[in-house]
Amino acid sequence: MKKTLIIFSSVDGHTEKISKKISEYLAHTSSVNLVCLKEANKENLDNFDQIIIGASIRYGNYRKELFEYISKNIEILSKKENAFFSVNVVARKEEKNTKDTNPYISKFLNSTEWKPKMIDVFGGVVDYPSYKFLDKFMIRLIMYITKGPVDTNNRYEFTDWERVQKFSSLLS
Ligand SMILES: Cc1cc2nc3c(=O)[nH]c(=O)nc-3n(C[C@H](O)[C@H](O)[C@H](O)COP(=O)(O)O)c2cc1C
User: Does the Cβ of 80 fall within 6 Å of ligand 1?
Assistant: First the structure.
């Protein structure tokens, strides 16, 4: 059976949720290990046939630990079947929800030597009630400017789960 490692870089848990969903789909054809980025160093990449990395965006950036991990493991990562997906709310917009149109995909590719064999991008979540004052204020401002939802009483999920399934089916 194929062995897959999924590594997620997630702050509020949504990239983790997407990663779990992917692992459920892959479980039919693969034995899957799912780990957060912090724990990824404990995994020996030699033990896997396929490595998938998912990461979310916060204030325009991925976490620096993501690039540290990739650069440390780039040689072995590149030898394996591999894939990357990004989670952000810019991807809620149809004109910015593909690997060629989402700005955080180009940002990722410009920040690493790694050339993932498969790339996708999924819409994330705006969960106003869970945010602290400053984040709530900032996200609302960004949403207002980019014509997104501004009612801070609500949680908005922009993930196209069918697309997550399609991505998974191309990996299995
Ligand atoms: C403080 C904060 C800043 C964010 N900044 C951005 C951003 O600059 N661009 C964007 O597209 N999404 C941004 N988001 C949306 C996140 O990418 C989205 O909530 C995602 O689902 C988070 O995934 P995670 O729970 O795995 O961290 C931000 C969210 C928060 C809470």
Answer: no
- Identify residue 66 by its one-letter amino acid code: L
pLDDT tens column, 117-128: 999 999 999 999
Domains of the chain, start order = 2-125+160-171 (3.40.50.360)
Q: Which atom of ligand 1 is nearest to the CA of 16?
A: 26
Which tokens belong to 165?
Answer: 């399934």
- Compute, in angstroms, the gap from residue 80 CA to the centroid of ligand 1: 29
The verdict on the CB of residue 13 being under 6 Å from ligand 1 is yes
Whose alpha carbon is nearest atom 1 of ligand 1?
A: 135
Model confidence pTM above 0.70? yes
Q: Go through 64-103 and write b for each residue having 16 or more CB atoms within 10 A of its CB, e for each that does not.
A: eebbebbeebeeebeebebbbbbbbbbbbeeebbebeebe
Side chain identity at residue 87, one-letter code:
V
